[in-house]
Amino acid sequence: MDVHAVSSASRPAVPFRDATRHITGVLAPLERRTLLWLAVRIPRGVHSDHLTLLALAAMIGVGAAFWISSAHPLALTAVPALLAVNWFGDSLDGTLARVRKQSRPRYGFYVDHVVDLIGTAALFGGMALSAHMTPIVALLLLAVYVLLAAESFLAAYSLGTFTLSYFKIGPTELRILLALGALAMWRHPTTMIAGREYWLFDVAGVIAAAGMTATFLFAAAKNTRALALAEPRPHASGDATK
């Protein structure tokens, strides 16, 4: 018999401590009330996994709409509706589980954010395949998004705080900006800067990538300082003079 297996099995399980969600977006107070109102009215046959899959399907649809817009620009008008469906599924799944007292913190955190990463890859992939954004800009956006997401996941583990919004801008506000951008691109796909014509989403993408990079650096510096204060460097063994 494996002694290590017996020892491990007899050891009491360490309770899982869910990270505190930190959401300070402009629309966060209204969003919380709306989600609670919706959660108590969702049919009992619908559960949180259904909503998570709905959110994923909607975000893949957003990416497809951008891709199709190369040949059919009218497809961009579907982006706001698909983003609304994505918000419904992605924001409501956790609230529904909590209202029904069916929360699975580890499962929910893992699956929700794996699905978010897949959906985001589909979104930027659709943009890269469209004729309205340079692929390198879409790839840059995806890389910076993954960098910022990874920092949030590391902070959730190290500090017990999962930050979903920065500088009053969170996922809901970003969806609104993306919806408005899609409609603007449908009407005016290019813009003039210093006498040169650029794709509107190339300009917006570079600005967004710069903003996310600055946010990553700010969050990394802030969290590193917090961890350094929480865990000061210990004195060297046997050195009582420092």
Describe it for me?
- This protein is mostly helical and 242 residues long.
- The chain has a single domain, classed as CDP-alcohol phosphotransferase transmembrane (TM) domain (Four Helix Bundle (Hemerythrin (Met), subunit A), Up-down Bundle), CATH 1.20.120.1760.
- Helix content is 66%, strand content 6%.
- Strands 1-2 form a two-stranded parallel sheet.
- Strand 3 (190-193) and strand 4 form a beta hairpin.
- The longest helix is centred in the C-terminal third of the chain and has 31 residues, at 200-230.
- The N and C termini lie far apart (49 Å).
Report, as a whole number of angstroms, the end-to-end distance: 49 Å
| Helical run tally | 8
Structural class determined from secondary elements: mainly alpha
Contiguous uncertain segments of 5+ residues: none
Mean pLDDT comes to: 89
Radius of gyration: 22 Å
Q: What's the multimeric state? A: single chain
Main sheet characteristics: 2 strands, parallel
Please name the fourth-level CATH homologous superfamily: CDP-alcohol phosphotransferase transmembrane (TM) domain
Query: What is the share of helical residues?
Result: 55-70%
